[in-house]
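Weekly puzzle thread! Below is a chain. First person to post its structure in token form gets bragging rights.
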Amino acid sequence: MAGTAGTAGPRLCRRLEGEAARAVLANADTLLFDCDGVLWRGDTAISGAPAALGRLAAAGKRLCYVTNNSGRTRVAYTEKLRRLGFPPAEPRHIFGTAFCAARYLRQALPPGAAAYVLGGPALAAELEAVGIPHLGPGPAALPGPAPADWAKAPLDPAVRAVLVGFDEHFSYAKLCQALRYLLQNPDCLLVGTNRDHRLPLEGGAAIPGTGCLVKAVETAAQREAFIVGKPNRFMFDCVASEFQVDPARTIMVGDRLDTDILMGNSCGLTTLLTLTGVTALDEVQAHLDSDCPARHSLVPDYYVDSIADLLPALGE
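Winning reply:
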């Protein structure tokens, strides 16, 4: 995979190394990092990643973290970065879908409006931080033995949005309530944190992702959700509203083509794929070989085997 990349021509996924790596990094003011599969796997930092980010920070680069995970607050991410040896980060440098969803609803909802949440404590905490009342987190049981009972459960008249994130307590009871809120008020917003359909685990295992839950609510409601996470550019807009970010001097670093790389390409960023996560080079090659223009938008400008491969270009 070689050739011209970026705005000068088609993206062809060149290996980023040597003089090209030094030039690309020198031209960047800001780097946006996905987290799991890029900086760490589970609770273990990827070898060399903390050192690479330390050198980037020492060189004066702005480091931001953009993740579709709605299960952690911004503060929790800063603590994990510190614990794993990465450069210190402030909460304002973290852009998770819990925070971005709360930001979106704060803009979209009238004062005093509430959200019905299919999600966990982090989603609830970020809503509380921006003053949005909410209900729904935690287990829920059907209110009676028959469908007629299920359709009569009390509804909070303040609810003007249904927000779907990762919810380990997702259930038919919650799906019923979400549908009833959406049917009761055609203006009730339907918002999802992301469409990631599968979350990979170590050893090749996987669990269903938030996208499965979003799809269930969309199917029941016969409506499409607004998605705040990657590849939607709303997540990048959140970064751009917080910092003076020039897309031409910003690098998106990720391990997923259909989220990280697609968002970066859509927003005019330089895109860098790392192979420590879910994507292999043969997937990129299949997109390059395709006659479908949409698949070409999944091709990154560059790739590295690991973020640690940037260390030689960053010097001592």
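Puzzle host: Confirmed. Bonus trivia for everyone else. The longest helix spans residues 172-184.
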